[in-house]
Write a structure and sequence with these properties.
The chain has about 220 residues and is α/β, with parallel strands linked by helices. It has nine helices and five strands; from the N terminus they run ααααβαβαβαβαβα.
Length: about 220
């Protein structure tokens, strides 16, 4: 197969969630010398972004998104060691968790896959994460971005509680805070003092990159 044919295969099979075909395509591409970044940015990420777009249009539902994400995860398992060796692939560290009182993680997990695929080092704290756990992990890992996820309107106030905990610990200015989840809006993110908000996984990647770049530009000024 040509490089273009492999990229097309990866795009289409990720879209349909055919994990064995995606893994096979990645291995075939590596065997013939294709750059890991090409398969990631020219096929896998665009395919998962299309999955997100179909979900927004109502053409795909959660099961289709999860199947596609699993296929993407299988490809990342193969590519991760190769990408880790490439310093240019490491955009920054993203610490992610679902807030205290909330055990939903589908959206968070999709974001994690997209972020990792885009070149972030992702640290996933899981679900029902209390403020003190976020503080402890921020001090340990020194992330560029911290993501708070909430699926329930009743747990959204934890965003503010977490940000208050960051301020009390003297960490607020050291990290970029992003929030997201089904009931979350830009207005709510602004109200609690978050730096960024993303309505979906692909937007989370783009927004995180923008915020990191803005912070680095300020440091250089």
């Amino acid at each position: 197969m040509t490089d273009e044919e492999i990229l097309q295969l990866l795009y289409e099979e990720t879209l349909t969630g055919n994990a064995p075909a995606v893994a096979g395509g990645v291995n075939d591409g590596l065997a013939q010398g294709m750059p890991p970044e090409s398969m990631l940015f020219d096929a896998l990420i665009p395919s998962l972004e299309e999955v997100g777009a179909r979900f927004e249009r109502g053409d795909y539902f959660v099961p289709e998104m999860l199947i596609a994400a699993r296929a993407m995860q299988g490809a990342l398992d193969i590519l991760r060691p190769l990408l880790a060796d490439n310093e240019s692939a490491q955009i920054g560290t993203f610490l992610m968790g679902t807030v205290k009182g909330d055990v939903h993680d589908i959206g968070k997990n999709l974001c994690n896959i997209m972020l990792e695929g885009a070149g972030f080092n992702v640290i996933d704290l899981g679900v029902n994460v209390p403020p003190e756990k976020f503080i402890e992990q921020i001090e340990e890992h020194q992330p560029d971005v911290v993501g708070f996820s909430a699926f329930l309107t009743t747990t959204m106030p934890m965003f503010k509680a977490n940000i208050n905990a960051l301020e009390k610990a003297g960490l607020r200015d050291r990290v970029i805070v992003m929030v997201g989840g089904a009931p979350v809006t830009q207005e709510y993110a602004d109200a609690v003092g978050a730096d960024g908000y993303a309505a979906d996984a692909s937007t989370a990647v783009r927004k995180a990159k923008e915020l990191i770049e803005l912070r680095r530009e300020k440091v250089l000024v």
